[in-house]
Amino acid sequence: MNAIEISELKYSYDGFTAVDGIDFTVRGGEIFALLGTNGAGKTTTLELIEGFRRPESGSIRVFGHDPARARSRLKPRMGVMLQQAGLIEELSTVETLRLWGSLSSRDDDVEELLDRVELAHRRNTRVEQLSGGEKRRLDFALATWGRPELVVLDEPTTGLDPESRQRLWKTVERMRDEGSTILLTTHYLEEAEALADRVAIMHQGRISVAGTLTEVLAAHPSRITALVPATALDHPLPVFDGTLDSTLDERGALLVVETAELQDDLGLLLDWARQHGVKLGRLSATQASLSEIFLTVGAQR
Ligand SMILES: Nc1ncnc2c1ncn2[C@@H]1O[C@H](COP(=O)(O)OP(=O)(O)OP(=O)(O)O)[C@@H](O)[C@H]1O
After folding, report:
1. Does the beta carbon of 19 lie inside 6 Å of ligand 1?
2. Which of 42, 185, 187, 188 to mutate to test the pocket of ligand 1 (most atoms within 8 A of CB)?
């Protein structure tokens, strides 16, 4: 079953279109990462999903309901972490969790949660004295209080050090494995690569690329590079499936083959080199990384 269904969703701020007709689906029990350039419209999209804003047009369904109309109905099923935490500075960590627990319809164990977000040693520290990363982890604890069916996290690991980030990933994965659906935004491509079952990349209010990581990566060409020594340039090169680009200098030709058929084209090049006794220099064969795709999308202005 789908947790979130979005169709032709549009939203504008005073005539400025921030979300420009997007479609995507978040399936129950998956981790879905919404990636994007600054100002792409990710936070606005999350706020629409959370029911804080009403769409200008198009539709959103969260567990089959319109979130702007059914906020009180959806609240018990959703945990939300905004980009800016709304924590009460004067309360301690443990008081914050207890207050949250008293307001929530879901149950959780404060001590277990303190351990889960590694704040047990800061239990009596006032929020105002917590570091940025500790506040972020406390905010994450509130969003995941009572293990909601759907957890929406806006840049959950911004400001966390690499170890804390990886530990938070583990917690998110565990929640997914226990049945929660997670929608998150992130600027960290390695985060999406490590965590997400599916991703969508937003740019200027639209979704440029979406799918499983394998699908998104497969839609972008892989690259073979090799330096062919000048002495070997008399032998005609093979005909590659992909596109060949070469730059000549006194050492020879630097070949770049962009291809959807990495294995076949690499095989052709290696067979050619073996047949003519050519020693290739600087040989590399790489699949498109999410970071390359991200840069390509960001460059489309
Ligand atoms: N309250 C607002 N009033 C007017 N414009 C806004 C408002 N909030 C956001 N915008 C604009 O809408 C666009 C999308 O903003 P949004 O915060 O959704 O992007 P984002 O993808 O979350 O960006 P970032 O990754 O930088 O947080 C931006 O151009 C932003 O300046």
Report:
1. no
2. 42
More confident residue, 85 or 230: 230
User: pLDDT tens for residues 111-120?
Assistant: 999 998 999 9
Kindly state if the Cβ of 13 falls inside 6 Å of ligand 1: yes
User: 158 φ, ψ to 5°?
Assistant: -65, 130
Identify the CA nearest to 26 among candidates 53, 60, 75, 70: 60
Would you say the CB of residue 18 lies under 6 angstroms from ligand 1? yes
Convert the pLDDT of each residue in 175-201 to its tens digit. 999 999 999 998 887 888 889 999 998
pLDDT (tens digit, 9 = 90+) per residue, 106-151? 999 999 999 989 999 999 999 999 998 899 999 999 999 999 999 9
